[in-house]
Amino acid sequence: MRIVLINPKPKIWIKSTTIPLGLAYLASCARRDSHDVSVCDLNLNPDQVIPEADLYGITATTPLVNSAYSLASRLKKSNNYIVLGGPHPTCLPDEGMAVREIDFIVRGEGEETFLSLLKEICGKKKYKRIPGLTWKDNFRIIHNPAGNFITDLDSISFPAFDLFGDISRYSHPQPLIGWRKPVVNIITSRGCPYNCHFCYKGTFGRVWRCRSPENILAEWEMLIKKFNVREIGIQDDCFNIDIRRAKEFAKLVIESKLQLPFSFPNGIRADLLDEELVILLKKAGMYRTAIGVESGNQIVLNDIDKKLDLTRLRTGMTILKKHKIQTIAFFVMGNPSDTEKTMRETIRFAIEISPTFAQFSMATPFPGTRLFESLSKQGAIQISSWDDYSQFDQKGYFNYPDGLSGETIRNWVRKAYQGFYFRPAQLLRIFSLRDFYLKIPDYISGFIHFILKGQ
Question: Does any domain span residue 181?
Fold first, then answer.
């Protein structure tokens, strides 16, 4: 079967051109079953011509879902199949199936469901026995029971990186602050046991599952020797749940002499760090990690169920600074329990812990999150289109308490950027970074946008 997997074009000011790992994994699995697979990454090349195929598989996050629906309508013919997957259709499969041209939705973790679907399309077409599949039977939408999460992640084929052409075109997940190319992201674990109210768990679930250090190292070595990768991003939701495993992996990299610069663009838990782990990761090549802080107010953190103690976070940040690891701290402004006082405290806390970089965002109620469900029940969601999730001039996603407006929250995001970055010590710190001089145009344009737009 001829299969084309598609990553839709985004609608944002600046895009991170990273290989879409979900499609890369699906491509690898389908190719292993002797299908003819190609990939169209419209994020990287929006003008790419999409070839004819027997089946089109389209991935969709919430900001991309309307683009995915448009692609489905454009590509559908009487003799082909349209399959949708990703977080948004997993959460809202009825909405996706309401698009006439979409034949199937693969919900959740996609590899096993997708391969079973391909087998039935080529065979007896008994779709009702495929876990995790949503499909139509004479215009009736049928949701099969959810599939089980894959427990043996080592059994999954490595992503089909070769299908993405010249991977030197791909950049760092944080495009303003990364400069080595090619950069490739990998995933060493799936799932997260935490239950933050803004996070969607429908794709990988809450049960943490991991690849063995030996399996990760094999992919690591392949990327270096076959693809000449110069940097790797470990894009786990929570890499350091098992500190023993994390240390074993770092030791393997060091012993194999496969060190190269790597980072954690999605972040690690600062409250689960110890000094030995940081030392080993640095020896293996780690130079930067993100840290999810969210708020500088403990009451707000408790309210969003972050399960994070600010004292323990301070300790983790101290260890990272001691060993000269760059940090990116993520903060969220405008949580339901936020006030102007707590947002001011968040800015003060960002300055206190002094990460290398700080990112301030507006609280965003993505479908499937507890934040979205809670606000929907209150009738507080005020967006009119999924496209609003990708607009950087968004004035607010929901009605805020205590008389705060979306525009007020937006202004606090802008104040946070100004307060954090427009300090002589912080500007000097950034200008002293080795990679700054290689990224001056991006830094300047980025800072201008931060100040003018707040993100």
Answer: yes
Token readout for 225 is: 């020797």
Q: Sheet containing 286-294: which strands, arranged edge to edge? A: 183-186, 231-234, 262-268, 286-294, 326-333, 357-362
Six-digit token string for 111 = 């590899």
Give the separation between CA 105 and CA 96, rounded to whole angstroms: 8
Spatial distance between the Cα atoms of 91 and 107, rounded to a whole number of angstroms = 8
Question: Which of 146-179 are b and which e, b meaning 16 or more Cβ less than 10 Å from the residue's Cβ?
Answer: bbebeeebeebeebbbebbeebeebbbbbbbbbb
Distance CA 309, CA 289 (A): 19
Contact 309, 272 (CB under 8 A): no
CA 356 to CA 353: how far, in whole Å?
10
pLDDT digits (tens, 9 = 90+) for 295-318: 999 999 999 999 999 999 999 999
Per-residue pLDDT reduced to its tens digit, 105-156: 999 999 999 999 999 999 999 999 999 999 999 889 999 999 999 999 999 9
* CA dist., res. 240 & res. 276, Å (int): 13
What is the helix (H) or strand (E) element at residue 233, kind and residue range?
A: strand 231-234
Tell me the β-bridge partners of 185: 233
Residue 385 falls within a domain, yes or no? yes
Determine, yes or no, domain membership for 310.
Answer: yes
Place of tokens 């098992």: 242
Cβ burial 201-213 (10 Å sphere, 16+ → b, else e): bbbbbeebebbbb
308 contacts: CB under 8 Å, gap ≥ 6: 269, 271, 292, 293, 294, 301
Q: Containing domain of residue 408, as a range?
A: 166-453
Cα–Cα distances in angstroms (integers) from residue 219 to residues 18, 101, 145, 163, 181, in the given order: 17, 37, 33, 16, 18
Task: Specify the number of domains making up the chain.
Answer: 2
Q: Which amino acid is at 250?
A: A
Q: How far apart are CA 369 and CA 202, in angstroms?
A: 9
Alpha helices in 323-405 (DSSP H): 340-353, 370-378
Same domain, yes or no, for 16 and 130? yes
Mean pLDDT (the chain, rounded) = 90
